[in-house]
Amino acid sequence: MSESTDIPTTNSWADLDDEEDGKVEFKGLNPSASSFNPSSSSSITNTQQQITSLSVMSKADQTPSSLFKEDDAPVASLLSRISGLTTNPDPAESSSTPSTPSDPASSSTSASRPKPNTSNPLFGRALAGVKTDRPPPAQAPAQASTSASGSHQGKELIDNKQEKKEESKMSGFDNGWDEPVQNGNSNSFEDNNEKKTDTSMSEGGLISNEFQVEVKLADLQADPNSALYSAKTFEELNLHESLMKGIYSVGFKKPSKIQEVALPLLLSNPPKNLIGQSQSGTGKTAAFTLNMLSRVDPALLTPQAICLAPSRELARQIQEVVDKIGQFTDIQTHLAVPGSWSRGQKITKHILIGTPGTLVDMLSRKGTIFDPRQIRVFVLDEADEMIALQGLGDQTVRIKKMLPPGVQNVLFSATFPEEVQRFAESFAPEANKLFLKKEDVTVKAIQQLYLECDGEASKFDALSALYDCMTIGQSIVFCRTKATADNIAQRLTEEGHSVASLHGDKDSTSRDDILDGFRNGKTKVLITTNVVARGIDIQQVNMVVNYDVPDLGRDGGFRPDIETYIHRIGRTGRFGRKGCSVIFVHDDRSRDDVNYIMSELGKPMKQINAKNQDDLDELEKALKIALKGPN
Ligand SMILES: Nc1ncnc2c1ncn2[C@@H]1O[C@H](COP(=O)(O)OP(=O)(O)OP(=O)(O)O)[C@@H](O)[C@H]1O
């Protein structure tokens, strides 16, 4: 991240424990948050009991072909058709195509890989490779575990019969989180989609866009199987009336499941830490925003809540959400990212939203910028990334050490790998925890596809062939390096296409301008790196292209980065919308990587062929449907 360039090397400046009496008076917007004693544990609620008692359900698993219903019939037919395609180039041939020098992973290892297992009928010839030089998937998906045989653990992943069985097994519903829950109404997603209502969120979507489409969410939110379902209304969540006005003004009708479950836990007193996992695009931002807005005292002109995000783009977006939902309060926000603060400037706004480097910089100035003892809430969005040992974790921990011991730590993400879960639990002790089951982590409405290319060099041609599809709505193309992003942006531009590239080497102003241009629809295709892989919410993005498979870099042996993949594809399919993701496969290595991703996620991917006009036509139809929203 470019934010790392502004990290000072100073250590924490004060031992705040000396002056902290452990008791904080609240005069904020939370009607039930009058005062609390952080050291008291007697009234701490048992989270698991609370969650278990809620009748929240998640959408049952769906076969890929069931994702597009009604007018989606052509797509369903495409999906069944393309699953049987055997038009892939001979893997042996593609493996002989030299990798680009910029890809150390493929250049260093592909030669030692065994020939793909072409007998596997389920992945098709293109994805039939076996892995031998990396660890096997930590845990085979449930479907595969009982009957996997032969050479590939992922065999059953795309066994339709097995999926149907799984689907009906899951129609007993669960909430996606680990604890069992009570059953509720059993309306299926498909049934609900057939009903039409007039409820629209188009008048109030947070992000305005000239391509705004009317989206009807009421049926989806009434479906107990959906991550957007809630048994409660916002009115029942005991929010301050000025916040209710803010919620109405942004057009939210009903809370999503994470909002419904997390908000009472967040707002209860004494405040408890919370670690919340919920699929991408399900409304985590509003959950922690409402908590921050509820807990700060508008009369106290100093920062009382800090929210950290991994990129300036996400911090800006969060600030916009907080400002909109808080517009009927006297609460103000300050953006703490490079370039948004002049050294020595005292900050008197109530909520600081920023990136860790800038916050460390501010806090290292010995309380002259703001008094950290007044901080009551510390939010980490994309928390697994924010506390990851390699990366931003050091700075985040340093910031936490400078905050008072009674601070409420709130950690949200769509992904919490097991090893990070353990660290999160020590970072936020005695937290209420909401973890998703592994198989529920990806959004079901994102149709995941893979595209076979004849070697690295032909990836660009495939991308170019996809351009028309990419501009039906808006698309984000993720590359591994900044150089690749610039290179393909330049080549597409030379071909007369209109695209923008965004990465950490651009200056702050350009980065802001480029994302704003994409957000307001002026640019329809954004070529980028992982800098916008997480959190960015642009509802019209109906397609994500993984030009390169995300990997864990040198330190991680260039193994595929499952979490980054989940976040990248999560830029589409937001809050009830559908979306498509396409990942490029061009050699044995990338083929193995995609197999690994499928196996880890327990999700099949279907193949598309960029040279096949039928495939492109059907993809186009799917994207048009995705753009339309959940009607
Ligand atoms: N209750 C609601 N009703 C309608 N729309 C909502 C509601 N809550 C959130 N949204 C919208 O859903 C979209 C996704 O929300 P948000 O960005 O908070 O998702 P997220 O869970 O943080 O995703 P990610 O994991 O990608 O960061 C936003 O456009 C937001 O305005």
Automatic annotation (TrEMBL):
Biased composition (Polar residues): 1-13
Annotated signal peptide: none
Catalytic activity line of the entry: ATP + H2O = ADP + phosphate + H(+)
Nucleotide-binding recorded as keyword: yes
Keywords per UniProt: ATP-binding, Helicase, Hydrolase, Nucleotide-binding, RNA-binding
Pfam families: DEAD, Helicase_C
Residues in DEAD-box RNA helicase Q domain copies: 232-260
Gene3D superfamilies in the cross-refs: P-loop containing nucleotide triphosphate hydrolases
Domain (Helicase C-terminal): residue spans on this chain: 445-624
Domain Helicase ATP-binding: 265-434
Chain intervals with Basic and acidic residues compositional bias: 153-169
SUPFAM superfamilies membership: P-loop containing nucleoside triphosphate hydrolases
Coiled-coil intervals, chain numbering: none
Entry EC number(s): 3.6.4.13
Chain intervals for the UniProt region annotation (Disordered): 1-202
UniProt superkingdom: Eukaryota
UniProt protein name: RNA helicase
Family: Belongs to the DEAD box helicase family.
GO molecular function: ATP binding; hydrolase activity; RNA binding; RNA helicase activity
Organism encoding this protein: Kwoniella pini CBS 10737
Motif Q motif per UniProt: ranges: 232-260
PANTHER family assigned to the protein according to its UniProt record, in alphabetical order: ATP-DEPENDENT RNA HELICASE DBP3
Record keyword Nuclease present: no
Organism classification: Eukaryota, Fungi, Dikarya, Basidiomycota, Agaricomycotina
